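This week, think about what follows.
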Amino acid sequence: MKKLIDQILKFGVVGIISFIVDFVITMAVSTGLRQGAGMGTSQAALIGAFFGFVVSVIVNYILSMKYVFERRDDLDRKKEFIIFVVLSVFGLGINELIILFCIDIVYANWAWLHALVGATLATAGAKIVATAVVMVYNFVTRKIFLENKKTETEGE
């Protein structure tokens, strides 16, 4: 149990670092597209989130496989990275759907919310909600598909 708690804490630190990378890129790209290209909030947020997510996946892979998960002996690094990316693509889909829902359904249709917060804060809020959901998905799926089961059972 202690090993799992330590692992969750390490995953949290890696997640915070990855989130900062993701969030900064998401906000910079979406703000740039809204202000510089006149793009709508939803489109700009989705494009920004895509770029932020892609860069953060690479950062997350490097840190997760070095500090959080014990590598499986039966997977070469190429297969491991492919599995990591495939799981992350599903996470990206969840991420984008949550952002789309938060902005196109909640933010756009609740006049009081629209009057209360601007597009930047709406994008930030949507990104935070999406990140929380995807973080749980990422930990569970990576633990199932990438963790070395042998060392997990030996540690108990």
Residues 2 and 156 are 9 Å apart (CA to CA).
